[in-house]
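Researcher: Please generate the 3D structure of the following complex. Treat every line as part of one assembly.
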Amino acid sequence: MHILVTGGNGQLAACLRKTAPAKLSVTYHERNTLDLTQREQTHAVIAEIKPDVIVNAAAYTKVDIAEKEKDAAFAANEAGVAHLAASAKASGAYLIHISTDFLFHGAFNRPIDESAAVKPIGVYAESKAAGERALMASGTTGAIVRTAWLYSEFGANFMKTMLRLGKEKPQLNVIADQHGSPTYAVDLAHALWRMVLSDKKPGLELYHFANFGVTTWYDFATAILRTAGLVTPVNPILTHEYPVATPRPAYSALWPKKFSAAFDFPIRHWQAALQDAVAAWQSEGASS
Ligand SMILES: NC(=O)c1ccc[n+]([C@@H]2O[C@H](COP(=O)([O-])OP(=O)(O)OC[C@H]3O[C@@H](n4cnc5c(N)ncnc54)[C@H](OP(=O)(O)O)[C@@H]3O)[C@@H](O)[C@H]2O)c1
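Model: Done. Output below.
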């Protein structure tokens, strides 16, 4: 089986590299060799590789800057997905596309399953919702996997920011009134490989994938520092005390039972996954 992974320079792609089953032949393309905003290039690369499965780990992910770069966000996250889906359909590839918990700005108070209505707010969330719609309208076979609060030893993410600031600053202020599901991107990568290898590839399916458990950024930060043996004090603050360009959902924890049942895939609690993530970051040299 031949697999194409887009966004080869990103955090999730790094986790897919780390966990790829040896029996699979996997080609990773970075933006400079496969730019999803370029329809002809996207089509040509897929026509040449003829992958059985495409994992779309590429996205415009600069959440706050997106407010000033609406065209770029939609070019990658909506038009790019449409180009990819059309090319996948033409070559007969199954397309696994990654989406986000940022679609859920609503009055939720328990983990959100696939039946919930989306309510995206802000350019990034709106562009990701548009990408889902483009994929659904394309008629290609594939799956949308929504995930949340991704972190790992790779790329730029909340865990690494806390570990860096925890060493640099005398104390940290972290938001305590937003709830979500921290998800180790390595666990997501394992789950995606399970999906790739599964015989269950229906027409088009929607899944939520996150580590189990619900927490706040404040409690997550505290757990990160404690796990790494750092004693930097963390102060809880409220959302309005840390203004950002794009509003974040107040509650966007995802409920991944459908994925777990469909692929017979055990999902860990976020606290167990965090132990492995911090250990991996420490063994990578904890340099970045
Ligand atoms: N990170 C999170 O907390 C989070 C949470 C929920 C869902 N997600 C979703 O999970 C997926 C993976 O996220 P991630 O954390 O791995 O993000 P990431 O580290 O920012 O990786 C995304 C990659 O996509 C590439 N890219 C951007 N525009 C592109 C284009 N037009 N064509 C091809 N590649 C392009 C970027 O290239 P450059 O390196 O050149 O910029 C980057 O390497 C995304 O769909 C994201 O929306 C992420």
